[in-house]
Records
---
Amino acid sequence: MGPAAPRPRPAGTGGRRPVGDGRTADGRALNAQLHPARHPGFRPSPPALRGRGGSLCQPGGEIVTRWESKWDRVELWLFDLHHYLWAGEPGSVVAGWLGLIGLAFVITGVILWWRTRKTFEFRLWPARMSRPAIVRHHRDLGIVVAPLLFLSMVTGVMLTLRPVANMLLTPWSGGENFRAAMAPPKVEGGALSPDLDWAAMLGEAHRRFPEAEFRSLGLPKNPGDLISLRMKQPEEWLPNGRTLLWFDPADGRLIEARDALAMPAATQMFNAVYPLHAAKVGGLAYRLVMTLSGLGLCLLGTLSVWTFWFRRPKPKARPAARVTAPKLREPA
């Protein structure tokens, strides 16, 4: 969509306009809360922390909490462990390859189970803690959770290894790069102005997408970057939505707006990967199913390691070969 200049405040509203979920906020108060020079919660982080700090605010602009490092919030460092193994981008690549190995285990396990499918018996726990009983339990419980493990690992690999996502989604993209729909516009923004009308900018976003909720506001990190705003429409699965708007930091002018529901099919499929992986869709039932899948994976892995180390069959001792002395012929 083309650029649009900030609209004047509507008459008869006392200088107020709807923000977020329809509640009103005074423009001057909102500016005071959101401007980076007036509230530490929205100041760009130091270079060492850039991309790790952040803030949460109410639709009216009131800061709820802020943090300067991922270690300040438990859910952030847990996510960093799960996604990056506390090792940054290299850790993400390692996690992706581990997911591919997990997929290989799932596929080969299904193939091995198929030969013994007539002996299937569902058990939450092995009948005995012997090696044969544990192996049978592993085979039968594994086939039950295999579809969910396959879904979890495929979506996880797609989120960590870009070539895998490209390979799976390219047939649905018509040969085009499906990520282009999510990339910022190739427009260079000006320097961040100290007098931006944040209420007008959010109001313009609300006018474009009246049913959407504000999710995140990103300030420019480098010279020439734009102000980014993410919104979530009711039909979107992503918790933070993928409805995107970009503003010029110099004057608050809307540069471009993109409707997540109008993005190409491959892009919308990619936007569904994370909600499926993290059980952010499907309500309580799907969360319980994915929780049981995770617990099943832990049980299968734990019993497999325990069996490998402590229930391995002892090699049978070979009987010593009998050596027969040759008979000596008596001299005639």
Note: The mean pLDDT is 81.
---
Amino acid sequence: MTNPQRHRPRFDTAFRRQISAACLAGALLVVVGVGTGCTPFPPEAAERTQASPIVVAAPTIPTGTRGAMNFDDGYVKIGTGKKTVEVWLDPMCAECRSFAQTSLPSLFTDGLEERATLRIHPVAVQAGQAPEADYSTRASAMLAAIAAEEPSKAIEFLRALYEHQPASNDPGLSDQQLQDLAREVGVESTFSDLTGYREWVAQATATAGSKTSHLPAVTVDDKPFSGHVDDPEEFAAFYRED
């Protein structure tokens, strides 16, 4: 039997990318004067246009709890049952898709029927798979926004994401296609700017990297599942242990 951890995505490289991106973003904010002032047009441009200096505002990163989304602790909450199950998933992770399509449906049922509290942590460990598109971040941000604004549609949207999962190094669905996918599962809201949500995903991914090293990561009442994520019977036995 192969080691179940061998091919599961690691946080190491992605975590470094997140830190580098954050540092770059911070540097850019300093350059444009966010928080400490702003950089005016060059004198000659100001004379021509008489315009005020440009101020670039940092994105508003969501906090607190809204709908099914707990931004501070980084998860979509489904149900309030006694048993607590936490799952960390990346929309581009093939192993996450396997778990989502085999074991997650029964967890959704237990959450909806109040037998369990299910916490789905959307992260973007594989954002670097298609850096020009950053699909993992964009898709996770859309999921978070839907969970916050239309929580009853979060499960169906997550299912749809894995049904339309791009191949490795594929840029994946565009922002408009993600919005269209949300429409297909009944989402009525239109999300024109998810910049703050994407920043939130980056922070959530960095935080998750301090808690687990592989994806998908699953715990039941804080006990980590170390078996094969593509074996629903093995997970079901683990889930029933408590």
Note: DSSP finds nine helices and seven strands in the chain.
---
Amino acid sequence: MTAHVYGNSHIKALTGLRGVGALLVVFYHFHQAETGILQPLFEFFGSVGVMVFFALSGYILTSIYDKRFYSGVSAFSYFDFLCKRIARIYPLHFFLLIIMLLVYPRFVYAPDSGLRQVFTNLTLTQAWSFDRFSFIAASWSISVEFLFYILFPFFVFFMRRNISLFVFLGLGLVYGFENNYWIFFDSSKFSDEIIYILKLTNHNIFHYGAFFVMGVCTYYFSDWRIFKKLLENNVAFLLLVVIVCVSSFLGAAKYAIAIFALPLLVRSAHTSSLGSYLLGGTVIVWLGELSYAIYLSHQLMHYLVLSIAGGQVVSPLYEWGSTYILIIIWSVFCYYCIETVARDRLRNSWFASSK
């Protein structure tokens, strides 16, 4: 079992990194077509932002629950963990989903959905199949993350065998192959079984959930002396940032690089003094706290701005100035009035009932 001890500024750096991830997704959705020769970089940043979320979740949850699940998973500890995670992600999702359902005819194409999609979105299971319709555009990733919350305690228990590095390497290689197999093989000659397996590995559950598992693995093996010293180095932090940026210009190979680099970047951001300095500032940490609300609602706010303008954009300054201001105001409201209030009440209610 491992134990990481770092100062408060290092913990804040992970919150700041979550804020960066949210901004990368927002910028990708709004501006990636306007970036000229840098388009591959900003297009990849959309995926990187989501991948960072998953790697961060796996890493941070392991740091919190390592001691609880390391020796076993009891019914009480498992239920307590799930209740706390649901209290964290579900209230805001439910609040925004109700809003989307009320304004559904304006923001969602009716032929794509029905009562089944309403049910799967309400239960956060919409991304568990190949019918991945989400009323809230970004909530598919929350559905995938919810699935990994359900599995998480068993990941921690499994890692007690000190196989984290082997899982990290093995999963990374499988992920890299899945994204680049066409370079080495003629897919037209694949059997139906192989094609189906590749279809499964290309599903969002694997494509992004793999980063969650890699985050869990990274927490464990990065405490080994050689990795600990290496990833605490400021040069390593900068090098990982550069590797992620440069890889965006390498076609499909960028995913094979990201699966290894991003979880290590999470660890380096946590432990290096440079990562703490760059990501631990007051503003960026505050954005990290708002990141869940920003991530879930940024497209809704853009739709609202366009709707108010009657679908006609007066000017880029009006469109994006209004959108970003609205996103921040709305996210502040969601975080302080919906997200934290509901989370605390649900957790206190569960704690009181479990006494």
Note: The CA atoms of residues 65 and 153 lie 8 Å apart.
